[in-house]
Design a protein that fits this description.
heterodimer, A: mainly alpha, 13 helices, 0% strand, B: mainly alpha, 77% helix
């Protein structure tokens, strides 16, 4: 009896405390996370540059100033100098930010959509579908990432859309595995059994109980995935298989810069590379911060 | 262990079959007709038909697949459409080049990564710790081809200390195809030095990502072990800190590090494609890229297959060594 009273009192005390949700707690933790703060600043700055590229730079990133080729930084009003065709490097870096962000987000979107569809259903329903889906994922994982992406682009032709597609496809297994693992763990838990025993349809259990409870690792992986996607997109651009002119892309800018690197113009090599690096660092820091504040353990 | 090994080898069969089917279908996934793609649009209908007959594209797909597998199992990987050189002969030249590059990178990454990770963990919270972890973050966030270009600019173009590209001159007698080994066997010091100078930049560039990952993993594994009771016991019985680290901590912290080293070896193949391109390194990466740009699809097919095979094998060895090293892992 007295045990019950104590229990009731404790429950009362707990109830009286202001309720906080998992997400609000996580939000508070990440706001105090040093690394994540740096990441948010970096990505925030990048978003601003991408948004205001037309205002801050020359109107068109492909405008050539033929009398001002290979100007070093700060010469003649070109903050980051000009390339061998007299194009303003700063303007091109800002427009490249648009491309990279778009590629990163869309590629990860493709990977998350297909990967989690495969993973959740495989983990929850199991049986032959699980065996088949995971075998296929193993096969996709048997190819080195960049090589598979190159092969896909080689098949479909270079360009920004095929870059997003290729990078998205090679990332699918990572998301399939994470969501499958979550679904497998949650499937056997009591609240799921309870839902099933009260007659909740399977599809509804999956959508209302399994998916929301597996979001944390998915969010962390997706954030880190944007970083990887941007690096892979730059690699494809560098190999000449990514975005094609007039689309401006950082990797393609780097390969262009080789042509005149030996004439001593380091700036066209330096700045797009820094842009890639800072963007990737930004997403990696935010991803690490999310992992810490959502308390997720991921196998790298 | 024996049963585990058998199970893993058995699981390899469907995976490799799946890989071979995907690689086989690759040429048929090209939009339009594969022969037209190889010959480009200017080819006449007769030329296309002749090539289709020669390459067997006019037969049913399952028949083509069985023939393809038959050839591969007999060690025939086809020939280049343009140069008429057989893929097997080319592989004999290019595979050692990639292996030499990848092995050097792995040695650099493992030695430097483990050392840095240990130092960072021992001096946790120090300037050295923050410095190492910042460098590690930059290392995984940097496009390696960009790093390669900057190093070429600094050390080859400006300072002229190191050569900007290629492997250097081959030894007179090529035994293993690994130039460092061949020069060593031939007792040719000058040749060895030249080879090492050519290896330095690409080896370091390819090592960056695994180095960073290994350093981070070593640090966190060390920190986890350092916090355990048996370490406190070892210290409290008066062991010197050096002995505690070497005998008790390192031994227990190395397992996750070995896993990461293995996983990175697989990832190294992706990096090799990019590194080889930057340094005109005559390995598998440049070979497959040239073939893609020349639409030499048989070469692409075969090299991708070889890459996937190596990748699968490396991952298998990693899993097996992990199970062998940690008796706690169940082989079920």
């Amino acid at each position: 009896m007295s045990d019950q009273t104590t229990a009731l009192a404790t429950t009362g005390a707990v109830m009286a405390r202001q309720q906080t949700s998992l997400w609000r707690d996580a939000g508070r933790r990440i706001a105090r996370h040093g690394g994540a703060r740096v990441g948010f600043v970096l990505i925030g700055a990048l978003l601003l540059l991408a948004l205001f590229a037309d205002v801050l730079g020359v109107a068109d990133p492909n405008t050539t100033f033929l009398t001002e080729t290979l100007r070093p930084p700060l010469a003649g009003g070109h903050v980051m100098g000009t390339d061998d065709l007299g194009r303003d490097v700063f303007t091109r870096v800002m427009h490249g930010a648009r491309t990279s962000l778009r590629v990163g987000v869309v590629a990860v979107g493709i990977a998350v959509a297909f990967g989690s569809l495969i993973g959740f259903t495989a983990g929850y329903f199991g049986r032959w579908w699980d065996a088949l889906a995971m075998r296929v994922m193993d096969i996709v994982l048997s190819f080195p990432t960049i090589l598979l992406a190159i092969a896909i682009v080689a098949l479909r032709g270079p360009g920004i859309f095929n870059t997003m597609l290729a990078i998205g496809v090679v990332a699918i297994p990572a998301y399939a595995r994470i969501t499958r693992a979550s679904a497998l763990t949650l499937r056997g838990q009591e609240f799921v059994t309870a839902a099933r025993s009260t007659g909740v349809p399977e599809g509804r259990i999956l959508l209302r109980h399994i998916v929301p409870n597996s979001l944390s690792p998915l969010i962390v992986q997706a954030t880190l995935g944007i970083a990887t996607a941007i690096l892979n997109a730059a690699a494809l651009g560098f190999l000449g298989l990514g975005a094609q002119p007039p689309d401006v892309e950082w990797g393609a800018m780097l390969v262009d810069s080789i042509r005149y690197l030996f004439q001593g113009s380091w700036w066209a090599l330096m700045f797009p590379g820094f842009a890639i690096m800072l963007t990737v660092i930004g997403f990696n820091l935010i991803g690490d911060g999310l992992r810490d504040s959502l308390d997720v353990r991921l196998r790298a | 262990m024996g049963r585990y090994l058998a199970r893993r080898l058995l699981l390899l069969v469907p995976t490799l079959l799946g890989v071979s089917i995907i690689v086989f279908l690759f040429i048929h996934l090209i939009p339009g007709d594969p022969a037209t793609a190889i010959l480009r649009e200017s080819a006449t209908a007769e030329q296309v038909a002749a090539l289709n007959a020669r390459l067997g594209f006019d037969r049913p797909l399952p028949v083509q697949y069985l023939e393809y597998m038959g050839r591969i199992l007999h060690g025939d990987l086809g020939e280049s459409f343009h140069t008429r050189l057989t893929v097997v002969d080319q592989l004999k030249q290019k595979l050692p080049a990639t292996m030499e590059l990848a092995l050097s990178a792995m040695v650099i990454a493992t030695v430097a990564g483990v050392l840095l990770g240990i130092l960072a963990a021992i001096r946790r919270g120090s300037f050295l710790d923050y410095g190492t972890m910042t460098v590690a973050l930059v290392g995984v966030s940097m496009p390696i081809f960009w790093l390669g270009l900057m190093l070429i600019y600094a050390f080859a173009v400006n300072l002229r200390w190191l050569p900007p590209s290629t492997r250097g001159d081959p030894p007179e007698l090529v035994r293993t195809g690994l130039y460092t080994v061949d020069y060593l066997l031939g007792l040719d010091g000058a040749g060895l030095l030249d080879t090492v100078r050519h290896l330095a930049l690409p080896g370091f560039v390819l090592a960056t990502v695994p180095l960073a990952v290994i350093a981070r993993q070593t640090r966190s594994a060390m920190l986890e072990v350092l916090g355990q009771d048996f370490v406190r016991t070892a210290r409290s019985k008066g062991l010197r800190e050096r002995t505690v680290i070497a005998r008790h901590v390192l031994k227990n912290a190395m397992l996750p590090v070995i896993t990461v080293v293995g996983l990175q070896t697989g990832a190294l193949l992706s990096g090799a494609v990019l590194t080889e391109t930057v340094f005109s390194w005559p390995g598998l990466g440049t070979y497959v890229l040239e073939a893609i740009l020349a639409r030499d699809y048989t070469v692409v097919q075969s090299v991708v297959l070889v890459f996937a095979f190596i990748f699968v094998m490396v991952n298998l060895i990693v899993d097996l060594s992990y199970a062998w090293l940690d008796p706690r892992i169940k082989y079920a």
